[in-house]
Amino acid sequence: MPKFSIPISFAETLQAIINTTTDMVHLNTPDGLILYVNPITEEILGYHPEELAGRPAIDLIHPEDRSLIAKDMELIFAGGESMLREIRLLKKDTSYIFVEVKGFLINNGEESECIGAVIRDISKRKQREAELANYQENLECMVQERTNSLREQQRFAAAIIDGLPSIFMLLDQDRHLLHVNKTLLHCLGYKTQQLDKTPALDLVMAEDRTVMSSEIETILHSGQAHFTSRLCRRTGETIPFYFTGVPFSLNEKNCVILIGQDISKTLQMEAELQKKKKLESIGVLAGGMAHDLNNILTVIMGSLDMVNIISSPDNEQIAPHLFNAKNGCKKINQLCEKLITFSKGGSPLKKEMHLDALIHECVIPIFADSSVQCTLPLSQNNPPLVADREQIRLVFESISRNALEAMPEGGQYTIEQQCVTLGERNPYSLPSGPYTSLTFTDNGKGIAQETLPSIFDPFFTTKAMGSTKGKGLGLSLAHSIIRKHGGAIEVNSTPGSGAIVTVCLPVSKQDPLPSPQP
């Protein structure tokens, strides 16, 4: 095969680039014979470079595409620039592949030496386009076969769109709504006539409108797009959606279809996971501190006992101070036990038990001296739990004390208990199976929305500090206990409308015990 010398400076560098590029580079003589091909040609077409040397380049081109290349060669020789062409090239195994080819002229300033071409294999792309076109064609055929009139087609499409669990929007090129499905109307609280020809961006949260407008523009000019955006309900609440958008032609006008999936629960689960990781980290720290503090308390308590032994029994000045010091140490010891329970070290000592009697036993004394009216569940022979009675008591007491502090002027406090069966996809991210659900409802002053994400953080409080307020570990301890029992706890509240605490605990898989009377 004749060697080709590249007639420019830095020839070795250029030769290295040609030899390593993933595109085929072919050089042909002015009369159309192959002069040079780079190494990648053998990998793509299967021909060794020596097999192609001196062969007419036209032999590699599909007969139906040869006229296009002939026109390009005439244009190149006339001093023009060839177009980027899609043609088919013959492989050694006699099959054809789709390529993009761009030709150029190489000369020494006086006469043409050769014609060059850069060729890119686009077979996979053409295959995907063909599959997509075939799919679209088959879909259109199915619709055409199953519908006998335009009215039936519209009814058929409307039934499918309205049956989607995701929201559906059809927008014209001016971003106005042409059609929405019932899911969207239900989610946002509108009626069909209220959204007729409405600008779609009016439904989008103000902070997200720029992004939504940009994505719609991308869909109109470039095709499919995926993005997230928040839509506003009529009540002012916002719902996050994950949108898939595709261009659509309606009556020869460019339109956009947007299909949105509500991702509120997904984001909530991600937030819960982050909260769980944070509480686990804090729990490890709390457990370590509690153990170290207990060691120090042991020394202090021992020293106080020694002082009590060596001091005179008649010394009335020392005795009260020793009593106060020991009492303070006991309170610190109780706090350490709570910290250990909150941490991974406080594993519950589980036994089979019923909740009915425990609820009455620990809740009634809390509200005994208040003007709060309590409604507690009656015995319903609910299935037993396998739980740590004292830890569950702490949970009920903590929730109830928070409710009492939220109703200083009195109110209504209700506890409801029922059996539920959770599926694989449930709002608590718990394993599927039977559970006992407890709902604690008060009509106090409620909790601000910005406060709710931190409600289970240790020592977080919005209350004034005092002898009965600002306990700090209450709900975080309850969260830790419920989690270690394989359950879940969540708080929902609207300022001024009270709070609802829901506790979900797995029931015992053994035969139920007789439920004791409260």
Please give the alpha-carbon distance between the first and last residues.
101 Å
Determine Rg (CA atoms, Å).
38 Å
Helix segment tally: 13
Overall 3D shape: elongated
The stretches of 5 or more residues where confidence is low (pLDDT under 50) are 464-472, 511-518
> In what order do the strands lie side by side in the largest sheet?
2-1-5-4-3
Largest sheet: 5 strands, antiparallel
Could you tell me the strand content as a percent range? 15-25%
The chain-level structural class is alpha+beta
**SSE order, one letter for each helix or strand:** HEEHHHEEEHHEEHHEEEHHEHEEHEEHEE
Please report the total strand number as a whole number.
17
Percent in helix:
25-40%
* Mean pLDDT across every amino acid position: 80
Overview in brief:
By secondary structure, the chain is α+β, with helices and mostly antiparallel strands. The protein contains 13 helices and 17 strands.
Q: Can you offer a commentary on this structure?
A:
This protein is an alpha+beta fold and 518 residues long. It is built from 13 helices and 17 strands. The strands form four sheets. Strands 2-1-5-4-3 form a five-stranded antiparallel beta sheet, sandwiched between helices. Strands 7-6-10-9-8 form a five-stranded antiparallel beta sheet. It has a five-stranded mixed beta sheet with strand order 12-14-15-17-16. It is elongated and about 125 Å long. The longest helix is centred in the middle third of the chain and has 47 residues, at 264-310. Residues 464-472 and 511-518 have low confidence and may be disordered. The chain has helices spanning 11-20, 40-45, 49-52, 66-77, 123-146, 150-163, 182-188, 209-222, 264-310, 318-342, 356-363, 389-406, 474-484; strands at 24-28, 34-37, 85-90, 96-107, 112-121, 167-172, 177-180, 225-232, 238-250, 253-262, 351-353, 372-375, 385-387, 411-422, 433-442, 488-493, 499-506. The chain is 39% helix and 24% strand.
